[in-house]
Amino acid sequence: MQEQQQRNFPMNTNDDIEPVVVFSGNIWHAEMVRSLLENAEIESFLIDGNTGTLAPWYTAGGGAGSVKIVVSNLDLKQAGEVVVEFEKNIREGD
């Protein structure tokens, strides 16, 4: 039997990191928010991008807020500020 080669990957020992949904909306708004978060150097992930676009009622009741953005709970405050500013600008544009 061949001996497995040990790999040294950086380990994150912080067990307190959890994903948090900071935004839910349509795919266009979600992609704009994700871009703003990226510009603020906040790592984020899109959830239900395809399903939320093609069949939004599968991911959210009534199809509202079907695409979600998730960030680390460690970035929650800064991400929340980005989302609040985005939503304020969207409302003012209507």
Plain-language structure description:
By secondary structure, the chain is α+β, with helices and mostly antiparallel strands. It has a single domain (19-93), classed as Alpha-Beta Plaits (2-Layer Sandwich). Helices cover 39% and strands 18% of the residues. It has 3 helices and 3 strands; from the N terminus they run βαβαβα. It has helices spanning 27-39, 49-54, 76-93, and strands at residues 19-25, 44-47, 67-72. Strands 1-3-2 form a 3-stranded antiparallel β-sheet. The protein is globular and about 35 Å long. It starts with 18 loop residues before the first strand and ends with a helix. The relative contact order is 0.21.
CATH fold type: Alpha-Beta Plaits
Largest β sheet strand count, sense and barrel closure: 3 strands, antiparallel
Gyration radius, rounded = 17 Å
Fraction in beta strands = 15-25%
Number of strand segments: 3
The helix/strand class is alpha+beta
- For the residues shown, what is the average pLDDT? 80
What is the overall number of helices? 3
**What's the SSE pattern?**
EHEHEH
How do the strands line up in the largest sheet? 1-3-2
> Regarding quaternary structure, how should these chains be classified?
single chain
Number of domains: 1
Distance between the termini: 67 Å
Instruction: Provide the CATH top-level class.
Output: Alpha Beta
